[in-house]
Amino acid sequence: MTTTQSLSHTVLWTALITPLLEDGGIDFDALSTLAQEQAAAGNGVLILGSTGEALALDMAEQQAVVQHICALELSTPIMVGVGGHNLEAQRQWLAFCNDYPIDAYLLGAPLYAKPGPVGQELWFRALLDASKHPCMLYNVPSRAAVSLDPKVLGKLQDHPNCWALKEASGSIDCFEQYRLAAPQLAIFSGDDALIPYYAQAGAAGLVSVAANVWPEATHRFVQLSLQGQSHNTFLHWREAVAALFHVSNPIPTKCLLHALGRINTPTLRAPLTHSELRDLQPLLRVHDSITSWHSTQV
């Protein structure tokens, strides 16, 4: 069974996209390549998060992604996203995943329901109880429409399966409240651009979208941030991250990966579409900037 100690050396988790074929089916060959690139860079792999368009995949497709990634026997930890609004469905998902050699779960707040502190604790505790692996809770008010209450986090930190928090509110004040409420937990930035600031406040690392495109460069950026040496590189990364979130994630990431020949199509599942992004030049410019920056680091 995975322990929190065995995860402590993973400072960067890549929220992996799910590459699709033109007909909308999963491109498993491209998925293998992307996952292996992350492993080679020393990055943990998070599958079936929001960047992976998990909610647009049916249950059989989600199960196939887990089975495929586990069969690769990657030399890096694997985390699986758990999110939706139906608690029993999420318990069933955990029951399926518990039988596979994964290392952790990312537990999202229930979507749309906007529970208060009592409902939040019930939701997360039920999922923690159903898990056989360490869990990273996920605060993402932009998607869940509610913020995780710091007092709830304080109550959950003692659960044996509660390992970490992904903090994606975009607020340093919120990060500091969570640090005070749950000093035992590892807290990861859920925003690529904020890792230099979160690192100063005690972050354990980053859950990244940018690492899909720049696995090695993002890893180096996180290392420098955790060492307090990222100040001279921040402007490069702030511009790059802004370009990757110019329209809804993961549209720009898929479009850039396709333009670079790293995936076969930029296809997404509706309601997302690559047609939202008409001008690739800003993405190509930041790609050149990050590539140039990283060449000075090796």
TrEMBL record:
Pfam families assigned to the protein according to its UniProt record, in alphabetical order: DHDPS (PF00701)
Signal peptide boundaries: none
Main localization, broad class: cytoplasm
The enzyme's E.C. designation: 4.3.3.7
Molecular function, one GO term: 4-hydroxy-tetrahydrodipicolinate synthase activity
Entry binding sites for pyruvate: 51, 207
Cellular localisation: Cytoplasm
Active site: 138, 166
Keyword Lyase attached: yes
SMART domains: DHDPS (SM01130)
Family per similarity comment: Belongs to the DapA family.
Role noted for this protein: Catalyzes the condensation of (S)-aspartate-beta-semialdehyde [(S)-ASA] and pyruvate to 4-hydroxy-tetrahydrodipicolinate (HTPA).
Name of the molecule in the record: 4-hydroxy-tetrahydrodipicolinate synthase
